[in-house]
Write a structure and sequence with these properties.
alpha/beta; eight-stranded mixed beta sheet; about 40% helix; binds ligand 48F
Length: about 260
């Protein structure tokens, strides 16, 4: 059989457009494909919700790929060890309560779990604005292709509608900042200095609905509340993603 480029081109365009059309209205939009976003996506997808994960870069994984200072290893503490097991990420105990995993494996397994859970990934797409509609609720996202922004092109964006949004954009807290600029109901304090113990112990209580329809997770949650940063210990990111998913499920239920 000879390969026909016309079929290859049609297969790609038609499949992607079909998937994209399904994303116009989704249960949960997750902005940011770092560890917290991937964990949340996977739990929500497993629960049967329609989940779209929007990531501005070419690949998901966020700050997890680089481990600590480009040593591709991450540390996870005891409280999150069960999530390493859940995602079948191999690890070894470095000393009591500190587990070390490979960054590449961790990103790969989280991504794989989200794929298996049916999450739709929109990569190279940036959330640049939000829609706030009835009952003062975040009802959807305004998106554009990332290269449009990089090239400085004047191209209007399109919209994706969702019942819940999770801002998992890391240190930027991009979605929370947009809402903060356009309403007086959200204020992003910005993250504090490095203090892993404090940052990791506070992240779950900061993972919450900060505006109707908008939940912050991962480093974005700590950034919103002016909490300290934690560096390459990743347990809090996974736990925060799991907690964000549970908050959505409490409201929307499973399918
Ligand atoms: O930064 P990131 O990995 O977020 P996280 O899940 O994890 C933080 C850790 O990696 C690390 C840390 C742990 O100790 O502090 O930094 O909180 O991933 C955030 C993702 O969001 C994307 C960005 O490219 C990255 O992959 N992102 C940011 N803004 C936007 C976005 C946007 N406006 N639209 C789409 N994606």
């Amino acid at each position: 059989m000879e390969l026909d480029e016309r079929i290859i081109t049609r297969a790609i365009i038609e499949s992607e457009l079909t998937a994209l059309l399904d994303c116009i209205e989704t249960d949960v939009a997750i902005v940011g494909g770092g560890p917290s976003g991937l964990a949340a996506a996977s739990f929500l997808g497993e629960a049967g919700l329609a989940v779209t994960l929007i990531e501005k870069k070419l690949s998901v994984g966020g700050g997890m790929w680089g481990g600590g200072m480009m040593f591709p290893r991450i540390v996870v503490q005891e409280s999150a060890r069960r999530l390493l097991d859940h995602f079948r990420i191999h690890y070894h105990a470095y000393t009591e309560g500190y587990y070390v995993a490979g960054a590449v494996e961790a990103v790969s397994k989280l991504t794989s779990a989200a794929c298996d859970a049916g999450v739709e990934f929109l990569t190279l797409m940036t959330v640049e604005d939000v829609m706030i509609r009835s009952e003062n609720r975040l009802s959807g996202l305004v998106v554009n292709w990332t290269p449009v922004g990089i090239a400085g092109l004047h191209v209007d964006p399109l919209t994706l509608w969702c019942r819940y949004t999770i801002d998992a954009t890391g240190h930027d807290a991009s979605v929370a900042r947009i809402v903060g600029k356009k309403t007086d109901q959200v204020f992003v304090k910005g993250e504090g200095f490095m203090w892993a113990e404090k940052a990791e112990s506070m992240i779950i209580s900061h993972t919450k609905e900060i505006f109707p329809g908008l939940i912050v997770a991962g480093m974005a949650a700590n950034a919103v509340f002016g909490e300290t940063r934690m560096g390459p210990v990743f347990g809090g990111m996974l736990l925060s993603g799991e907690h964000a998913a549970s908050l959505v499920l409490r409201e929307l239920g499973t399918r």
